[in-house]
Amino acid sequence: MPEIIPTHFNGIGKADGFGNKANILILPFVSTLLFVGLTILNKYPHVFNYPSEITNENALHHYTNATRLIRYLKLIIVIIFGLIVFKTIQNVKGSADGLGTWFLPSIIAMIFIPIIYFLMNTNRKKKNN
Description:
By secondary structure, the protein is mainly alpha-helical. The chain has helices at 26-42, 59-93, 103-128, and strands at 4-9, 15-20.
């Protein structure tokens, strides 16, 4: 790899920041830290904020729903950071030009669609009680 690589991409996926090739290691490191932090947090679902009061009757549903969401988000974070590293390497090799215009909308959808789904699932249970 060359000494200078893209380190930042704008909203339409074009490289607009450059740095040392060692910076490519930052994303896997941050991704690992986020994954470990969310894994630890996921062991304590009682500390999360919920849209309704937690009772003995609804605790299992809420805790299960919340921990599933965290597990899904962990997977998405690893995929996102992996794709950024992959696309950065492709840019360096000349086989790609930026991340692509589809990248940002895809990331937003991958994060917010499951959050909306899990919130709807939580509210569905709330209405049934």
